[in-house]
Amino acid sequence: MAEDPSHSHLGDHNGAHAMHQSGHHDHHDDAAFLETNRNHWNKFAASYSSEPWQKDMLNKINAFIYANINWIGVDFVDSATTFEATDPAQVRKVRVLDYACGPGTITYALGSHATEYVGIDLSENMVQAYNLRFNPAIKDANNEDESLNAHAEIGNLLTTEEPPAAFSGPKYHDFDLVVVGLGFHHFSDVRLAAKRLVERLRPGGVFLILDFVTHAMEAEEHPDVKASANTVAHHGFSEQELREIFAEAGLKDFALGRMGDEVYIRGKSKREPFLARGSKI
Ligand SMILES: C[S@@+](CC[C@H](N)C(=O)[O-])C[C@H]1O[C@@H](n2cnc3c(N)ncnc32)[C@H](O)[C@@H]1O
């Protein structure tokens, strides 16, 4: 299934984030970069799936995950047997951390395959959108999504120092799956990110990312393109980079699958999504 997705990076037209692309790590700039991400995603939380290009992208991603559900390698629950379980206490638990969850694209795609979802995101508006989407108590009447055992919290685990104490309890550890959907290219230090997230897996648990194959940068004349470019630290990933990042984070059985089709951001910027997975040793 895996092909080498590497193409050479084109020059970085934007000095402001060249530093992030090179993997340089600096506390002050990281704080500013996180703030840029938080503000940007707060602004777009309410319109994440409103445009036709967004709907098309989300539909394709949903179908891609669905088509590869067994390939992910998590022993998901079979909703056919748990739907009307006679003894709910006997139902096997499958716990998922949806990191950089946004409004819940990945949680929604995995749906009833898992029994518990914990979402974490920097942006409070994204967290609110996630919780409105999946929590039946606060969901409005027009929201047709099935309710899931899914709840998100505001946070950032990708810190060089110990992650916040609020995330130290058992609720935030021993996951069967930790997944990052379209978030990895927004993290300044992806090696640290992988390490921090793999810490949250149980041994044998799966780390999964959905992101874009290495791509060229766009000219950034349009204000929307410029604003989102400032939140991007990596212009996609190559298979070789990912293999190294996954191995360094303590993962084995690396596998990568490309979608084999493209999505168009704002109807223009062509991207090919991939899924990459590894199991915690
Ligand atoms: C492109 S959205 C993806 C949302 C969702 N996972 C999806 O697949 O649609 C990127 C998300 O990453 C979040 N994010 C960026 N940096 C983050 C960090 N360091 N920690 C947590 N979330 C972060 C943003 O707030 C935003 O919601």
TrEMBL record:
GO terms assigned for molecular function: methyltransferase activity
InterPro entries: SAM-dependent_MTases_sf (IPR029063)
Annotated Basic and acidic residues bias: 1-15
Renumbered residue ranges of the record's region Disordered: 1-27
Listed Pfam families: Methyltransf_23
Keyword vocabulary terms for this entry: Methyltransferase, Transferase
GO BP: methylation
Protein name: S-adenosyl-L-methionine-dependent methyltransferase
Source species: Exophiala viscosa
